[in-house]
Structure formats: structure tokens, C-alpha cells
Design a protein that fits this description.
A 3-stranded antiparallel beta sheet has the order 1-2-3. With 156 residues, the protein is mainly alpha-helical. 46% of the residues lie in helices and 6% in strands.
Length: 156
Amino acid sequence: MITFAVSTGLRREEICSLRWSGVNLVDRHLIVGRGHSTKSHHERPVPLVKPALDVLNRQDQPDEAGYVFRGFRGGKLNGDYVGKQFKRYVRLARLPEDVSFHHLRHTCASWLVMKGVPIRVVQEILGHSSVTVTQRYAHLAPGVMREAMEATFGDL
């Protein structure tokens, strides 16, 4: 699920609510909000890249109405449970205590921006209401700004 979150930028609740009816493996995209509500109350398409497709291909596909990621009894996976399990792995990995599942969404946005994806496209993928919100997510890795300047002006 961590790989899926980073490679789609979906919110934890969007992942827990995702149904197979919103997944198109042939055309390699999913529709967030199909069959459930999203934070923005709008459906949005999200392209599926290889890491996300690999995760989906390992999941059982019981029926079109079924959840992609299921709880113990086959129903919707509980978002709080996912968050607590993620925190458990954060501690095991000795990462900072403030790292949360939501940071995977920040990682997706940052990686997209660092690869030169226009901020407006990142906004659409993440389903943000404005570019301003997206810019808060788009942290740059150290050295990216220097590399951009050197690529433009050369290494002095």
C-alpha cells in the first residue's frame, strides 16, 4: 500500500475507499471518487504507473463493486488501522516520529515537481482545489534549485 500511495498520490481514505469499478487496468488509470466521496467531492482520473499497476495486479479482484484493499472480513479497510500500522513501521525504521501516511502524498508531489512536471498537472493528479495548496506539497530535494541554475547559466 505504501508503494501504491507514493505512485498515485492518493489520500489514505481514497485508497481505503477505492473500488475495482474505479480501476481500469487496460487503459492504466483509475477514477478517484467513483462510488465514494472524496475530499473535494469530485471524481478525478489518476494515471497508473508500473509500481501502482504491480500492486493492483497482486490484489484479488472479487467483483467490480469490491474494495481493492480490504479489511480482514473483506469489507472496506479502516483508515485508522492503516495509519496505526504505518506508524508502527515508521518506528521500526527509526524514522522521525512525525512521519505520517500523508507524507507519502507529499513525496509523490515532490518527486513529480523534481522531474519537471508542471505544478498545474500535479494539482490535477492530487485533486487540489488550487495551485497554492499543491505548492505546499512540492518540496524540492536539496540541490535541485542549484542544478536548475547551473543547467541554465552553467557552472561558474
